[in-house]
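Researcher: Go.
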Amino acid sequence: MKVIQHSAQTLQTALVSDHQGLAKVYREYTKEERRLLEEGFHPGEPGSLFQPITVHSDSDWIPAHPEEPQDFESFYRDHYRKTPNASHNTIYIQTIGSFGEAGVQTDQYVEWLRQYSQAFFYGLSVKLLPAVTVAETGCSFRVNSNTHNLQILTGDLLRFLGNKKPKDAFCIVGITMIDLYPKDSWNFVFGQASLSMGMGVFSFARYDDSFYSRNYAGRLRKRLQLKQGDYSVFDRYYTPPISSTPLLRSCKTMTHEIGHMFGIRHCQWLNCIMQGSNHLEESDRRPLDFCPICLRKLQVSVGFKIGERYKALLYWMEEDQRQTPRAGEAVAHQSELYLPKPTGAFHASKLWLCRCLDILEKR
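Model: Structure:
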């Protein structure tokens, strides 16, 4: 295992900048906000909020995909990055295909993702578009010859999203529980995006722990003669059960990919949600939130108060506990059925947010 350790001076320059004007803007943060951000200058020390990046093998993202690091100044001066404005200030989420048994459970899962994204990109509106079937996208599809599961073509989905993108959209993201492929020569892809067009499509199919096992319920047990345009093969096709770990992984993927829409590149400074990942194990090592450098990039784009954003994220993680029905309490309608939010996998992140708020609220 290799630890990527930058000096305190390098991290300070990446966050604050040597440019006098940008350094002056940095000083507009409160003393408490600066104290929080500057916790990142000494990653890995006892009690530190932030950790250095660890590379566990040559198959990890950084050795496999060499990239130029993006500090705050290079982000700020990027003429191609997109910033929300009064006319384009909404993130739209488009679900594609089934997210489980139709009804309350599916609706609730997608609503949890929307609410989490609303807290994460605090200050922007996040809206769900009406769900569509695979057939409605008109996409091509195939059976993967290795994993024997159904896959849908990303390019066709991006064209569909481009036609669906509302006028006030900052970006539109398609999410699906069906595996994806970008072209015939590729085995699969977790997602694909067009940052210039402000749209992307991402799959959560491989976040099921049993995906790679021979017993995976999404593996087709017999050879199918697929006919393009006949989408009946997707009727009642398997989708993973809703549990805490897939919800955590889904939140990570959504926020990482939407982060790219702001022009935030893969992080190479500290352990961060914006790190690239080549495989599920590496993705699981990423934290749920930004390092200080990437946090400043988003904050300057949206304009939120750091503490208010952290409170919104903490509220999302704790909200379900506040709304638990009392023993014996009945619910009147199916739409009001109580579905506990499975946030067990978020426990470490919840404790981390509390520590951040302790710093921000200390007077």
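Model: The two ends are 40 Å apart (CA to CA).
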